[in-house]
């Protein structure tokens, strides 16, 4: 992560960093507005005041991404995933695992709320929760948070809410309760004008326009995986200092991509995967190409992003989940965005986008 100095924060970002320690706060902003940076500096500010905040993320890649920057601020031990933190909290407080649904991966919020309602409220031991990508957490968590934490700060973007189990801004504000301060941050300091214009086609609302110019996103057809790898390897050689991400929807595809990169002896490539006994995490402190599933990309940013399997997305160009996923993936890229597909026709999600927004490239 390119963590700016606190002296380089915008006026809006500085305001958020310096919010009062006590209270409940919802900070919303589009991709590129610096929500993760603000979450880190909000956490740092609370630590500087002698408090004990926890910075919570939904995914493991985002935790690793934040932890790499947090180390530079002396905050590494405060960064945890939502499932990791809540499970540890429940075990510490009630000496058992938290109640779960039949799938064993989703918490049983009704049972959790019932147990907390019976507990002694004087047992509250969490001073401050800071939540990044808060739209990814279930709405019930925010009601629970009012029972287990004194103060809560949530950073969220409703345009990155992909499923109905995730939270809207209004749900977060309502569940945090009366008196919650909502502050919207309106800037895009990450993307170029060209990438933001493309991403804006998939957003539910008008987005702030950045000032930096660059190259338009490119669409490439390929027939073999080797062609994808050749293009990526060529890009990394031509741009040795760039942080590059390769993404695909399915874990089998990213494993194939990693295998091909390994064959070409791209030793700096790292993969994030959770499949059976195969478990690998990414060290964001190390340079090199990162390979992740599309659902793991949220909250991250790179100089260049390669989306390698556009043909696997919904054939319905109006499908909301697909459009939000495209918005998320496109806005990860600072400088260059490459969309790749195979098949006889362009994928419906991009087929109607004009050439002056999406460059068709051989």
Task: Write up what this structure looks like.
- The protein is an alpha/beta fold.
- Helix content is 35%, strand content 19%.
- It is built from 12 helices and 15 strands.
- The protein has helices at 11-17, 35-48, 60-73, 82-94, 109-118, 139-148, 169-176, 193-200, 225-238, 251-263, 320-330, 348-351, and strands at 24-28, 53-57, 79-81, 126-131, 149-156, 181-184, 218-221, 244-248, 270-271, 273-275, 278-280, 290-293, 302-307, 333-341, 359-361.
- A 7-stranded parallel sheet has the order 9-12-8-13-14-7-15, covered by helices on one side. Strands 3-2-4-5-1-6 form a 6-stranded parallel sheet, with helices on both faces. The protein has a two-stranded antiparallel sheet with strand order 10-11.
- Strand 10 (273-275) and strand 11 form a beta hairpin.
- Helix 1 (11-17) crosses helix 2 (35-48).
- It is globular and about 65 Å long.
- It starts with 10 loop residues before the first helix and ends with a strand.
* Major beta sheet summary: 7 strands, parallel
Strand order of the largest sheet: 9-12-8-13-14-7-15
Total count of strands: 15
Report the end-to-end length measured between terminal Cα atoms: 32 Å
> Could you name the ranges where pLDDT drops below 50 across 5 or more consecutive residues?
none
Question: How much helical structure, as a percent, in the residues?
Answer: 25-40%
Q: What is the number of helices?
A: 12
What general form does the structure show? globular
H and E order: HEHEHEHHEHEHEHEHEHEEEEEHEHE
- The helix/strand class is alpha/beta
Determine Rg (CA atoms, Å).
Answer: 21 Å
What is the averaged pLDDT score? 92
Strand content range: 15-25%
